[in-house]
Amino acid sequence: MHNLPRCRGWGWEIPCESSGEEWAAGQERQKANAPTSDPTKGFTSERAPEDRGARSAIRPVDRRDRGSSSQFWRWAGTAFSREASEQGGRGRGGPRWREGRSARGRARRAAFPGGFACPSLPPGSSERARERLPARAMALHVPKAPGFAQMLKEGAKHFSGLEEAVYRNIQACKELAQTTRTAYGPNGMNKMVINHLEKLFVTNDAATILRELEVQHPAAKMIVMASHMQEQEVGDGTNFVLVFAGALLELAEELLRIGLSVSEVIEGYEIACKKAHEILPDLVCCSAKNLRDVDEVSTLLHTSIMSKQYGNEVFLAKLIAQACVSIFPDSGHFNVDNIRVCKILGSGIYSSSVLHGMVFKKETEGDVTSVKNAKIAVYSCPFDGMITETKGTVLIKTAEELMNFSKGEENLMDSQVKAIADTGANVIVTGGKVADMALHYANKYNIMLVRLNSKWDLRRLCKTVGATALPRLTPPVLEEMGHCDSVYLSEVGDTQVVVFKHEKEDGAISTIVLRGSTDNLMDDIERAIDDGVNTFKVLTRDKRLVPGGGATEIELAKQITSYGETRPGLEQYAIKKFAEAFEAIPRALAENSGVKANEVISKLYAVHQEGNKNVGLDIEVFGEKKKKHYELSL
């Protein structure tokens, strides 16, 4: 069967079924029958009687008979005249063909109800013939559906109604929540994520997973934004937001399918949320008493660290407690940026330590490697001499001129370094390059020289030692210099580090020197440290705590369900579903721990009905014993 394309040109359709071989045969017959020397000959759709069997057969006709305005199109070996079709003539361009009244037209339309595509020229056609093809013949206009969609630009999609919009969005959010649900809790699984830069992340931290996934779905992105806001405000609990939001939407879908409207579901959820805020103060089991006690703070930080580093929570909690307590100001305003982490590859996690001050993975520039009672001058400019903006050529004629050529520059640098040394400064920290001549005079006056490339490190160092960064190489005054108990070059593993140390535990910044066998492991531990530091910050604002292990969620579900039964309207169904959504938290803990979730939930409800509000899931004994779970969480 031949390919029967359709060409839309000046308002009529031109079917073509000739193949390349038939067209070539017709051309040979045309050359045999047509005069080759008369340029005034053209072609028409009328066929010679002897060539009626060939679709591509044509015979010559005088072009002058058609007039100068005649336009001839040749498609797949058959030529048509526009004027002939406009005058209502017979043939493939006439009104009978356009209206489908010809037998051949009806047969072809029945065989190809979907229409034809636009044809291409036969093999061997000249470029001139291709240029004669009208551009409009290749265009295909697809009309847009009426309504709101036709107001949007090309490629835009429009969904409406429950089936297309609401259920689709709920499904996307459920799938996102299911992705991070298996990473919830101490026994949650790590996720391996490779971002667009081909960087590998192995973690169970939901905030990191979502940040590297780059979610594009609009509805799912709203939950991602809520998780990011939770991380900014609290620093932990990002996975709780995802799991709880996914459960709320899943149960809302059930309400919509049984006939409740969207507004009724929203109203019931808002009522239940207000009730949960009223119940929470009654569930407080204890409060932090002394945030300057390292042992007490270490106990309070266990839960937030356990979810990231299960098994190492005791050691890491003590490290974080020491670092936080040492810089906790009397005003009570705690800044999480004052806890720094320096990751040094090698050894193990239990070789990590806390240092009151700052540690940089750098080496000293000069010969001096240790200074006691340091007076520090900080410069944000290069430690170099003054250089003119323009360059010139110097003609030296004698040896004496050669000896004196750079003597003036040397004397200037000597005087600058000597002026800095006369102020009492014995440590210089610069944010730019260090010239060899300047380094020579720094060694001459016994000054320790450290170079920091990062302006953020330079700013934090100024905060640590109480210095002011100077933009020019001028002698600092007493108020502009920083002070530190000791500055020394040390070796941790096989890495050289410069330590700015305060002996007293009242500095502005503390550093946790973190050791580990791999970079991915240290990155994951650093995220656990960030969660612990943010938990300490929350404790400085609100010292109340509630029991963990799903105890708080089960008690909220029990009381909100009882409250929903007292409501007379349709919102009671939404209130009960809101309470049921809290079961997703202990259910996720049980499933990730390998426990039968339904059995655990039923046992927890039974215990809470007896009045034991602080009983939760103990993953170490897999819920077999009824035990008060005082490993507290916020």
From TrEMBL:
One GO location term (cellular component) = centrosome
List the GO molecular function terms.
Answer: ATP binding; ATP hydrolysis activity; ATP-dependent protein folding chaperone; unfolded protein binding
Tell where it localizes.
Cytoplasm, Cytoskeleton, Cilium basal body; Cytoplasm, Cytoskeleton, Microtubule organizing center, Centrosome
Query: Primary place of residence?
Result: cytoplasm
**Basic and acidic residues composition-biased segments:** 47-67
The keyword Endoplasmic reticulum is assigned to this record: no
Point to the regions of Polar residues compositional bias: 33-43
Give the family per the record: Belongs to the TCP-1 chaperonin family.
Q: What is the role of this chain?
A: Component of the chaperonin-containing T-complex (TRiC), a molecular chaperone complex that assists the folding of actin, tubulin and other proteins upon ATP hydrolysis. The TRiC complex mediates the folding of WRAP53/TCAB1, thereby regulating telomere maintenance. As part of the TRiC complex may play a role in the assembly of BBSome, a complex involved in ciliogenesis regulating transports vesicles to the cilia.
Q: Please give the name of this protein.
A: T-complex protein 1 subunit theta
